[in-house]
Amino acid sequence: MTRPEKEEIYKCDLCGNMAEILKGDGAPLFCCGRTMDLQEEQTADATKEKHVPIIKKIDGGYKITVGNAIHPMEKEHFIKWIELKADGKSYKQFLKLGDTPEAIFKTDAINVSAREYCSLHGLWKKENCN
Ligand SMILES: [Fe+2]
Fold first, then answer.
1. Angle at Cα 36 formed by Cα 33 and Cα 42, nearest 5°?
2. From the CA of 94, how far away is ligand 1's center (Å)?
3. Is residue 128 over pLDDT 90?
4. What is the rounded CA–CA span in Å between residue 21 and residue 130?
């Protein structure tokens, strides 16, 4: 079994609990009597929704959108959260059904990356860009 690493996302496939590692190198995470599943960061997308976050520099910060076409925000298939990592800080916007799958983060950071989590298709990441 591998040890969790900082910033990894884990999910229990029985109850749906999710956890993010703030400090790694400990024991594997357990939930509902079994190990939680690592959510792999996907960076290339063959699905029609296109999940890789799009990072756009705007006045005073960054706007993150999900997909070239707007991703669904329906009960069985929606974006749960969008995260921006910016010069060592982490910002997260949780979304609810009916929201537009986008988030605006105010920061003057230079080095940024983004992640988002789709309820059906998992974790997606756009690597550092500036
Ligand atoms: Fe999706």
1. 165
2. 16
3. no
4. 26
35 vs 10: CA distance, rounded Å: 9
From residue 63, alpha-carbon distances to 91, 95, 107 in Å are 12, 14, 11
For 9-38, CATH gives 2.20.28
Please give the pLDDT value at position 49.
66
**Assigned CATH for 53-129:** 2.60.40.730
User: What is the C-alpha to C-alpha distance for residues 21 and 94, in angstroms, rounded to an integer?
Assistant: 17
According to DSSP, the residues that pair with 89 across neighbouring strands are 86
User: How far away, in angstroms, is 109 Cα from ligand 1 center?
Assistant: 28
- Centre of ligand 1 to C-alpha 54, Å, is 15
Ligand 1 mean position, distance from CA 36 (Å): 21
pTM exceeds 0.90: yes
* Distance of CA 68 from the midpoint of ligand 1 (Å): 12
